[in-house]
Structures are given as C-alpha cells and as structure tokens.
C-alpha cells in the first residue's frame, strides 16, 4: 500500500464511535472464530486456511466482502506472509509492513503492525473501510457495501488515487490494466470465483478523471455516480440457512466433505440447492483455496453435501405473476374494478361524513376497487381514503375466478 494521508472521515468515524484503533482491535471476534486452528506462534506464519479464516472474519466484522479483503492481501502480499523465512516481519521497499502492507500510518502501533498478525489485518481492514466512507470517491447508484463492484474506488484509494491508478489512460482512453484496483479485481475473479466469472464493468469516460499524468497530485473525480449495465455480484459469504442458491457452472462437484479431495457427485448448471448450515473452511492442511464450503441439500433432499462458494449465486425469488385485467394489473386485496363511462368526481369523506371533491376522473380511465360502502348511495373505495360514487357514470365489475386463480399462484 502506498503512502497516503489518513482521511478526516476515518478519524471522524473513530471519534463518533468513541473508540481507538486498539479498542476496535480488542473487540474483534475473529481470533476466537479461528481458534480451531490453534494459537498463532510468535514470528511464524499461520497455515493458509488459518490466514483465510482470519481475513474472512475481519472482513465480515467490518461489513466488507471477504472476497475484496483477500484480494487486497494477495495484491499487497502474494504469499499471505507476515514474516519472512527468518521469522522477521515482511517490510517492503516503500516501508509497507506485514500482510496488509501498512505504510505511513502513525496512528497505529508500529511494532504491533510488525509482529501481531491480527493487528496488521485489523489495520488494513479499517483503512479499507474508511476509504469506502469517503465522500470524494464515486459509487454505484443504489448499491451498498455488500456489492463487490462498489469497492472499486475504495480499493483504488487504499493504494492511492494517483494518476498511475487512473482506470483509463488519459491519452488513449484505453483501460489501465496496471492500475492497482484492476489487479485486485482480477484476483477476485481468479481466486474467489475460479469459473470464468467476470465482475461488472464501469462505463468509464476519460472526462470522468481530471489529472496531470506527469504530476503526483491526486485524481479529481468528475463523475460521482455510475450505473452498471453488467450483472453485479453480492458477496458469497452472506448466505443464510434456508437460502436457495443456483450453480453457476456445469458439472460442479457436490462433495461429501468440505475438501476437494473428498467424494464427489457432479451436478448440472442452474441446479437449485438449499443452504443447510454455516460455511466452513477447507479441511485439507495443504489447501490454498480461498473459497469456503457451504453444507447444502437438493430441493428434494435426496442429496446432501458441501459445495464451493465459488460456484453458487443467490437464487432470486420468482417474480410475482402479473395478471392484467383490461388496462390495469389485478392486485391482491382488490375486489373489483371501476371504469369511468362519463367524467365523474373522485371524492373523499370528511370527519363529519360529508363528501368533498378531490379531482375529476376522465372517461375511459380504470381504477382498482378495494372496498364498498353503502353510504351516500354507494361508494367504491379506490385506496388512499378516496372513493368513486356509484352511478350510471361508472361501470363496476368483479374479477373472474380464473383471474383470481392466476393471482394466487
């Protein structure tokens, strides 16, 4: 991670929470969540799956997709090593410290950053989280932190919003695949999905980024909100028991144990599975897989086993059946339909029982009727406390049994 100034937003966040780096670190639960791997020994790197557990839980604690945190760690430190072969802390040429390569962060205990793996991970996660909450970085419209693509600019800022990380080359408009965030997102695709899944692409334009290629000044972002046409991806670590998921690849192996070395049964693409428990890490001591395993069962419950998180996606609920009745859609709770034959008034009933006109309804318009009262010669309730008076100006109909049957499916 390059040298970058601590954002005011991050400091404000800590002040508002009434905490400090060390208090946040002390409150973390990830060490206990990974206790099955044993204690971390001084100046020794944990096993890959132990480190996988630490990074995953730190990310979940901070409401960051673990796919993002792990890819940042891979980009910063390819081997996920806190210590070198001599047991000394890994220090980069630009003085980046440890697994998350924390650089020039004086608010952290520098010795802890070197020798305490949990503390180093916590620092990296806190910094990354603070980048997400910056107000000077673009976001994807109407999405939250659970969407992996929405971390594109926070990941960029983790390394620095310098011209070298511009998503496009200013001179040619071509994609800058050497940008830090592009490398991170390539690792997400490679290690967390491993099935040719492509993350959603931003519709960038060179006018979105203002900077001098020869300067070290930060990029000024001119477009602060994007809409992606491509499918976006929610973290695979948020599935709950009972969730339905779909297989994203053909001939995916359903395993008898959470390990690629266990007995397998091939399943077809788009097979629906039901999450049957919390995810587990790979049981193989030599595994370097970053994905996790979910216990699952088929819908008919004839097959049970474990499936890799790399090959499943959340199955969306089937869209509600849309039943059209003339010009309008039939809705649950609707008892009938009023068609205006001659211009008439939409009215409201006052507290004293009198009627007042809201507006004029035009000939040919249709309105859903949800209630009927005999007051004032008959009133059709059309919602929102409004009524249409029963008269020869209005045609009232009730839905057929066949349409109601379609609506109840």
């Amino acid at each position: 991670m390059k040298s970058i100034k601590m954002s005011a937003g991050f400091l404000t966040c800590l002040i508002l929470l009434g905490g400090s780096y060390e208090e946040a670190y002390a409150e973390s639960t990830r060490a206990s969540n990974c206790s099955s791997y044993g204690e971390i020994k001084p100046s020794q790197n944990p096993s890959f799956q132990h480190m996988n557990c630490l990074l995953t839980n730190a990310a979940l604690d901070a409401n960051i997709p673990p796919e993002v945190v792990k890819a940042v760690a891979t980009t910063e430190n390819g081997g996920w090593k806190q210590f070198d072969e001599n047991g000394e802390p890994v220090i980069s040429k630009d003085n980046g410290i440890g697994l998350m390569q924390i650089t020039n962060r004086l608010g952290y205990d520098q010795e802890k950053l070197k020798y305490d793996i949990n503390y180093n991970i916590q620092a990296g996660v806190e910094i990354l989280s603070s980048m997400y909450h910056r107000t000077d970085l673009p976001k994807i419209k109407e999405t939250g932190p659970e969407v992996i693509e929405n971390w594109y600019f926070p990941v960029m800022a983790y390394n620095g919003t310098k011209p070298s990380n511009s998503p496009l080359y200013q001179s040619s408009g071509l994609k800058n695949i050497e940008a830090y965030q592009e490398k991170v997102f390539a690792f997400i695709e490679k290690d967390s999905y491993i099935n040719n899944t492509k993350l959603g692409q931003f519709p960038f334009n060179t006018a979105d980024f203002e900077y001098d290629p020869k300067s070290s000044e930060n990029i000024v972002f001119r477009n602060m909100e994007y809409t992606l046409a491509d499918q976006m991806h929610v973290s695979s670590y948020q599935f709950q028991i009972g969730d339905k998921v779909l297989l994203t690849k053909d001939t995916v192996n359903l395993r008898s144990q959470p390990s690629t070395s266990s007995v397998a049964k091939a399943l077809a693409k788009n097979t629906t599975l039901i999450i049957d428990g919390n995810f587990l890490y790979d049981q193989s001591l030599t595994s370097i897989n970053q994905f996790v395993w979910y216990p699952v069962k088929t819908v008919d419950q004839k097959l049970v086993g474990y499936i890799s998180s790399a090959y499943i996606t959340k199955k969306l609920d089937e869209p509600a059946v849309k039943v059209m009745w003339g010009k309008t859609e039939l809705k649950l709770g609707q008892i009938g339909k009023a068609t205006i034959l001659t211009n008439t008034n939409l009215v409201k009933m006052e507290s004293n029982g009198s009627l007042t006109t809201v507006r004029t309804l035009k000939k040919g318009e249709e309105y859903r009727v949800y209630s009927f009262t005999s007051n004032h010669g008959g009133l059709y309730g059309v919602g929102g406390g409004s009524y249409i008076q029963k008269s020869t100006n209005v045609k009232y109909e009730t839905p057929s049994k066949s349409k109601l049957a379609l609506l109840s499916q």
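The CA atoms of residues 110 and 382 lie 67 Å apart. The chain has three domains: 1-231, 244-314, 323-407.
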